Amino acid sequence: MSEAEATRDGLRNQRPGREARGAAGGPKRRGRRRRGEETVVPDAEFRSYYGRPIIKPPTWKAADIAGYLFLGGLAGSSSLLALGAELTGRPRAARAGKIGGLGAIGLSTVLLIHDLGRPARFANMLRVAKPTSPMSMGSWILMAYGPAAGVAAATDVTGLFPRIGRAATGWAALAGPAVVSYTAVLISDTAIPAWHGAHRELPFVFAGSGAAAASGLVLLAAPRSETAPARTVAVFGAALDLAASRLLERRLGPVVAEPYRTGRGGRLMHAATALTAAGALGAALLAGRSRPAAALAGAALLAGSACTRFGVFAAGVQSATDPKYTIAAQRPAPE
Amino acid sequence: MGRISGPLHDVAGDAGHHDHPPRMGFFTDTSVCIGCKACEVACKEWNAIPEDGLTFTGMSYDNTQGLSADTWRHVAFIEQRRPVEPPEDYAGVDVLGMAADGAAADFRWLMASDVCKHCTHAACLDVCPTGALFRTEFGTVVVQEDVCNGCGYCVPACPYGVIDQRKDDGRAWKCTMCYDRIGDGLEPACAKACPTESIQFGPLDELRERAAARVERLHADGVPEARLYGADPDDGVGGDGAFFLLLDEPEVYGLPPAPVVTTRDLPSMWRHAGAAALTLIGGVTAAYLAGRKR
């Protein structure tokens, strides 16, 4: 055995001491000591395995799943607005909501099946009804909602079976809000710190964002004479979305909330805030007076809602990819 | 379905198995791991797992990088600069390693073979929408490849980042604790191949006793940093079916310091989602009621 020249830098002629029973230095636990004293931001001090992520980021494609979060929210809320419009004698706004609901949920279904690793096995989703799996519950929620949304839209457009149409409209309006808010449970029920830690606020963000999107659709598609309540919904939805988003970031704390403020997630969330706020202001102040202004406000609300969903999705991916978020969420800084 | 969090004595029974064998597990004692990777090889061979890239990472001797759909045992290599003092009693110690300059070196190498934890409360199993993931009679967690439709929900649900989707195949894959072997009275391939008994397979109760004794022994021998990871039934996942003896903080090995099964908070999630749905209904109803009066 020769001298160990080819060791790591600094070892020179020493042989690396092999870890053997009893050979480890007792009192000197440098790493731990230092970590125990860390302050608010553990960034500089945290240790990891070569910086590799501790958890796996979702394999979901953003276009499919973030797209579904947006479209599902739009669909469910649109059905609710459709019922309101129908009951208050606003048939064109009601039709916009019904067609919007069907279109959005139809596209959602395509995206969801497309995202499966084995799309041909999509029917396996209905093999069981499993309360511990939000995706299983969601599949059944979609089963309850989708056909009703379809019947509501078809009867409205064709004018056939008005009583069945009214029942379907009511049923879709009841199931719709479940479609909107369950998607928050879907992503919160993961190990991803930016999602799991936000499980109390995310449903409200999604509910507000969905309401804003649906009101935007009605503003785009219905005449001004029928959009007064939708303009109120726009303000309500935007306020709920933005307020819940602020609470969410505060709940997560400076480190874990970082993906909502920086990088791709941060850019999308900032865009979402600007678009949603501008859309709501436009809806409240201008949309009642001018059709182009209404259309513009509606488009901003829809775009804002999409940015929120893609932003939340991107923040989750970012949160899973850096081990510091996992560690920060599990080892809160000592007071 | 049984309990979603907290200690659970009869895991297989809770999942509906009657007259089942004892819960089986792995105890991976990293203090005797020599980094030979025989476990990785044996696992790949026995389970016929496809090759997943031959890369050079520069991460010490670890070119495997981590657990994945195609890596069910992963040996981590950690190089640490720290004083290693020679023991008082040289019996059973590799003296050649110490003898080069007769005194302390300032380097130590940690090696650890990671694997699926087969949690008492397994998030992957909880969230699986098709029932492809199931609890076996041995208390382990296994994917049925003929049922999995590749939804990918288990992947971000796992608090340890173990299970993953195989790209060209679309389905989720992970360690089965060699379900086919243990059902036949054999030990899993990795444990069988391990030359130092760093990987021990057996009834979980026995392994926990053995592990506690091992930690005591190491503490008595002057290794105060030896600690068990995943052995506590009161932890966030109800204890692991595959647990470890570590010589540093878990995150140094790429393990989460305090993992929690995400479904522990599921009741709270549904409550908040319900409240949000009602808020949505309330807000929209109010808007249309106000609109009607005009």
Automatic annotation (TrEMBL), chain A:
Q: Which organism is it from?
A: Actinomadura parmotrematis
Bias category Basic and acidic residues: which stretches? Answer: 1-21
Q: Which UniProt keywords apply?
A: Cell membrane, Membrane, Transmembrane, Transmembrane helix
Residues spanning the signal sequence: none
Q: What is this protein called?
A: Polysulfide reductase NrfD
* Gene3D superfamilies, sorted: Formate dehydrogenase/DMSO reductase domain
- List residues traversing the bilayer: 65-87, 99-117, 137-161, 173-196, 202-221, 268-287, 294-315
Stated family = Belongs to the NrfD family.
Q: Where is this region: Disordered?
A: 1-38
Where it sits in the cell: the answer is: Cell membrane
Which InterPro entries does the record match to this protein?
A: Electron_transfer_protein, NrfD-like
Membrane topology, record value: Multi-pass membrane protein
Automatic annotation (TrEMBL), chain B:
Enumerate the UniProt keywords alphabetically.
4Fe-4S, Iron, Iron-sulfur, Membrane, Metal-binding, Repeat, Transmembrane, Transmembrane helix
* Region Disordered, annotated ranges: 1-20
Which residue stretches does the UniProt record annotate as biased composition, category Basic and acidic residues? 11-20
What domain of life is recorded for the organism? Bacteria
- The residues forming a coiled coil are none
Bilayer-crossing residues are 269-290
Q: Which CDD domains match?
A: FDH-O_like
- Compartments reported by the entry: Cell envelope
Any Pfam family hit: Fer4_11
The segment(s) forming the 4Fe-4S ferredoxin-type domain are 24-54, 107-138, 139-168
Instruction: Report the principal subcellular site.
Output: other
PANTHER family, per the entry? FORMATE DEHYDROGENASE, NITRATE-INDUCIBLE, IRON-SULFUR SUBUNIT
Name of this protein: 4Fe-4S dicluster domain-containing protein
